[in-house]
């Protein structure tokens, strides 16, 4: 029997340990770190050799969250038990303490957490108690005692003391879980309230969109419309800049006043000055009467200057005063005219680059760049393509008194195109397909890319290289184009080149063969736009016609480079498909290529058909072998 002095000393030590444990549990919000500190205090005060704290997770698994004496190569998060598994699982299931005098003789001991490999040399005893919170078992606390004299038969005081410590841990775990649940609840409520209070963007006439970036544009339109601030709308050609400008006017207090639009790129400088500022009678030849300019006509309303980046440097200086002071003089007049105009400008050019190169005045740039709205290109809002296509189909049907529809496979083909012309190109594509469709439904064979007549990828490639093609400004998105024609943004695989030539990009093969131009087991090559639609068979033909190769645009040349002059122009042959095939069957590819180009009058598309290659392969080979292309 222990003496009274020993009992008093033991009780005093337990009380001091309880005090230290309570201080540790209330010192930090990091639960795992706090539990490790508790085990360290137990080890210091009670000569405990090893300790484990297990907590039950949401999946009802008992997971080790804190340990003392765990091997360095073990991870606490990887050790878990199910109910009834091992000693800890038995304590979790029964909710009763457990004492194992000798772990080496215990059949339920599995040593999953490690650190007990010396049981043959020393006698280790285990004391485990459940961790309870509000009467529910939420975890298990275990400690190990090592004795050289064999197991001790007095574990009652250890169980009683560990039960008190486990109760303190249970209350702390409950508090942490309550705080975490309340925090998650508050975050959900905050998100719900913010979503309810978020202003609903009202639809804008003729603007069809559901993509997030276009919804943000419409929200910006609603925010800026009530004010008089100058707006600069930026975006590629065909994205709907004039439509957004009209929407800003219609949503503004000036909606009942005139909305005047001027395309600055369509008028020469002298005529543009007269159109914007007006002129007096007799100010120049042909000025037979006074003429009001657009600034004067739009007074009280909105003036939309489209393609403002294309005006000359001289005329840019003339705009400065009217934009700053809202006053001007007519051409040939001296009377100052005051005007109240809200100005909306639009451009598809990179104005910052133009200012840096001295092509656009910096002071004018700062006057028009007050509120900027960026319109995303159609390829960056692919979620709107199907909706826009259906809108244009319905519009064409309404204008022509038809019952028209478009099938799902055709929409999938349209969704894979690059659309360098953006919404305007999509509308034209739908209108072109609608004139070719039969039975009132637009299908894949009705699309231009199915007949290999779409040059979208060629235009898109040249625009991303920094060249202006046919009035389209270089792309501002900077999307790289794969030389093989595959678009990485669409997840199209790039195939390795074969025999020193870039291969043609094959069309993917979905389940529906008709959607990809597959007829009778024949898979057509991909169209120029990369939409994977091949040419459709001609009505009444037993076999589909071979695709017509598209000759790529010439590479953009620097301004200082002189055009190549052929030394001896070759005669232009007649455009007949049956050319004499006296092609050299042997010899290097360069000789065969030169023969084909001379035979076809240096037309790459015809040379490609002669050699059984694609136009892109011929273009690549010409550059590879440094063959000078003769131009006539």
Q: Your description of this structure?
A:
Residues 494-507 have a biased composition (Pro residues). One of its GO terms (molecular function) is DNA-binding transcription factor activity. This protein is α/β, with parallel strands linked by helices and 632 residues long. The protein has four domains: 4-180, 2-Layer Sandwich (Beta-Lactamase); 212-376, Rossmann fold (3-Layer(aba) Sandwich), CATH 3.40.50.300; 379-516, Helicase, Ruva Protein, domain 3; 571-632, Homeodomain-like (Arc Repressor Mutant, subunit A). The protein contains 18 helices and 17 strands. The protein has helices spanning 4-25, 31-46, 86-94, 156-197, 212-224, 241-250, 269-277, 294-297, 313-325, 351-356, 362-368, 385-400, 408-415, 422-436, 456-464, 589-599, 604-611, 615-624, and strands at residues 50-56, 62-68, 80-81, 98-100, 123-133, 136-147, 231-234, 259-263, 278-279, 291-292, 302-306, 327-329, 336-338, 342-347, 371-374, 405-406, 441-442. The strands form five sheets. A six-stranded antiparallel sheet has the order 3-2-1-6-5-4. A five-stranded parallel sheet has the order 8-11-14-7-15. Strand 5 and strand 6 form a beta hairpin. Helix 12 (385-400) crosses helix 14 and helix 16 packs across helix 17. The radius of gyration is 40 Å and the shape is elongated.
Instruction: Please state the overall shape, judged from the principal axes of the Cα atoms.
Output: elongated
> Could you tell me how far the N terminus lies from the C terminus, measured between alpha carbons in angstroms?
118 Å
The major pleated sheet works out as: 6 strands, antiparallel
Strand content: 5-15%
Name the CATH superfamily classification of the largest domain.
GAF domain
- Our Rg estimate from Cα atoms comes to 40 Å
CATH level 1 name of the largest domain = Alpha Beta
The amount of helix comes to: 25-40%
Count of domains: 4
Subunit structure: Interacts with sigma-54.
Pfam families: AAA_lid_14 (PF25601), GAF (PF01590), HTH_8 (PF02954), Sigma54_activat (PF00158)
Biased composition (Pro residues): 494-507
Function: Required for activation of most nif operons, which are directly involved in nitrogen fixation.
